[in-house]
Amino acid sequence: MDGRTNVAQEALYRALDETVSRLYAEGRLADALTAVQDAAPRIPSRRADTAHLAACLLTLTGRAEDALAELRAALADGAWWSPAILVDDDDLAVVRDLEGFAPLLRESTARHATATGVPLPPVVRRPQGAARGVLVALHGADQDATLAAEQWAAALDAGFVLVAVDSSQRSTPLYRSWPDTGLGIRDITAALAELDEADRSLPLLAAGFSAGARVAVLWALSDVSDVSDAAVRPSGFLALGPALTPAHLDGERRARAARSAVRGRILVGEQDDDVTPEVFDAHKVLADAGADVTLETMPGVGHDFPADFPQRLPALLDSLLAARPRPAGR
């Protein structure tokens, strides 16, 4: 499949996913199923994802046997799903009781184990002039490093080497996310190893969107030596719509925040129902600990990048690199 075909299919899938989410929320399950069945043949690259959508909707409309048949047909076409998708999704509860589900789960789990955890080379972009820092960009759930490199491209004009990292954690052949922070830091460490020594000596910042933003925050507040001897920690983070809750901020991370060991900037859309209000509670935890972490709410923005993000980004990066005041007595 060439690049243009892939881009076209991804655009179709994104539109379908948005449509299905809206119809699902409105309780229009039959209409959502029709939308999936009409679009799926035009998105063969997303066979596993459209089959999962169809199976959930078939089950919810009383057609569990057809749902299992849909999953089995996709499996025969080479699809697979992480065990969590098949076992933990409440929409598939009835399907799990059917004869034939157990062997499907075994085969899918075996394929998932083989395919996931394999790191990909990072997407690295360099500024035209001398670099003054490295920005690691982490994609959101069901996105990838290529998209992240586009979303954070304004960092190049700000003088940063941009390193966009693909998560090696996959739920389907194309669905990547960051459920395990430790594995995410391993992926980041492997990506940074691709840089030359001069780049690795530059100030390092973390950035991300949604699930990737959560990992950017937790990476900045982690004891990375627990993950790898080669791992490094960024001096600051920029988190856009982070899927972050107080539960992610354990005692060790709160203690590191209290030592002002990292500087952070959080941006949240005023209409972002995906991560609010939990992200506000998480920010309060960091602020109460004394961390230099600010939160800005963006009017008219949902769970997305604001239209003026390329114009905003350079100043945000400058604020993260700015010299810190020296504590009294030092």
Oligomeric state: single chain
Number of strands: 9
Q: Tell me the helix content.
A: 40-55%
The N- to C-terminal Cα distance equals: 60 Å
Q: How many whole angstroms does the radius of gyration measure?
A: 21 Å
Beta content: 5-15%
Strands of the widest sheet, in order across it, are 1-3-2-6-7-8-9
Query: How is the biggest beta sheet arranged?
Result: 7 strands, mixed
Describe the protein in words.
The chain has 330 residues and is of the alpha/beta class. The protein has two domains: 3-115, Serine Threonine Protein Phosphatase 5, Tetratricopeptide repeat (Alpha Horseshoe), CATH 1.25.40; 123-321, Rossmann fold, CATH 3.40.50. The protein has 14 helices and nine strands. The strands form two sheets. The protein has a seven-stranded mixed β-sheet with strand order 1-3-2-6-7-8-9, with helices on both faces. Strands 4-5 form a two-stranded antiparallel sheet.
Describe the SSE topology.
Layout: H1 3-25, H2 29-39, H3 47-60, H4 64-76, H5 83-88, H6 101-115, E1 123-125, E2 133-138, H7 145-151, H8 154-157, E3 160-165, E4 169-170, E5 176-177, H9 181-192, H10 197-200, E6 204-209, H11 211-220, E7 236-240, H12 251-258, E8 263-269, H13 278-288, E9 292-298, H14 309-321
Parallel strand pairs: 2-3, 2-6, 6-7, 7-8, 8-9
Antiparallel strand pairs: 1-3, 4-5
